[in-house]
Amino acid sequence: MRHATTNGDARVWHVSDDLAARYAEGVLPEPEAWSLEKHVEGCGGCAATVSEAVRGMAAGPVLAEIRDAVLASLPAPAPAAPAARRPRRRVPHRFARLLWAAGPAVRGAWLPAVLVVAAGALALAYGTGYPGVRALLLAVAPVVPVAGVALSYGPHADPLHEVAAATPGGGLRLALTRTVAVLAVSLPLLTLTGLLLPASGAPAAAAWLLPGLALALGSLALASFVGCRTAALLTGGGWLLAVLGPVPAASSGGAAGARLAEQLSRCLDGVGAQSAWASAAVLSAVLVTARRPVYDRPLGR
User: Fold this and answer.
1) N or C: which end of the chain has fewer CB within 10 A?
2) How far is CA 3 from CA 11, 18, 27, in A?
3) Which residues lie across from 5 on neighbouring strands?
4) Hey, how many other C-beta atoms are within 10 angstroms of the C-beta on 211?
């Protein structure tokens, strides 16, 4: 059957001639045949013994002829190109993967929409002389990243979402990549636009950065429970209701702008308000991490 050799405390078995002959004849029981086949994968000596036994059977010459015919039908391998002449395509491939992972932050209609918001604010301020444009921009700006996150991740954003979510680069990693891309586009662009607008009593142009980050992360965390679009409606709608709700609809343009600036000051100005937004961002990030396995499957609508 088998013969064993002793190596210290371990006993290693090898294929005997009798075992190889029984395997070649096809009379070896399946469990022993499986064990033999597994063993010869890592033992060259036993593999040679079994191969010699198989070639010694009646089917050996036929198998040799088939092997030679198969090898003869294969095309000759093309000579390898010198390493120095091979074109390097790593950078384009990496750029393409990054472009795909970034989602609508750098492709599609989302970036033009952000540019329209910025250009519209500038046109409204300097074209019509409306005094409360910065306040209006600060009210809308935190919702822009939320909308970008909602549009960049989920079955509605990617036809291959289920496949992408199951890959090593999918799931939470893909969601965070697209969230970072959304923030990297919207935060500097809208902040720069705010700096170019008249203050008119509104908070500083950068006062919305922490709220925008917190709302984007909060939307991503909430998406693990209710889906991307519903989460965006809840976080973005809640923010707009908080800042625009106290502004009377019947107020004149100047009065409405002043009331909106006052409400934004309560929500954005001061160490207390900014600390609260920073805490909300940290808690949202912790929740996203805790819910990580959920992002490996479709997040619904």
Assistant:
1) N
2) 10, 10, 19
3) 12
4) 27
